[in-house]
Amino acid sequence: MQQNASRRDDYCTTEVTVDEVEAHTGLDIMPILPVESESSVEGTLGGLSLQLGCS
After folding, report:
1. Which of 22, 38, 43, 53 has the smallest number of Cβ neighbours within 10 A?
2. What InterPro entries does its record include (predicted)?
């Protein structure tokens, strides 16, 4: 979540959960998500790093 990241930076190690984003910003990213689903959805990495070709 670096604010000064450039296009050439290695993003393979910067994937974070929605919970981490919410903790840093104070926002509720998915406000209508049922409470019983919240921890499993917001607390899990989505796998974007693998889709970007990271190993």
Report:
1. 53
2. DNA/RNA_non-sp_Endonuclease_sf (IPR044929)
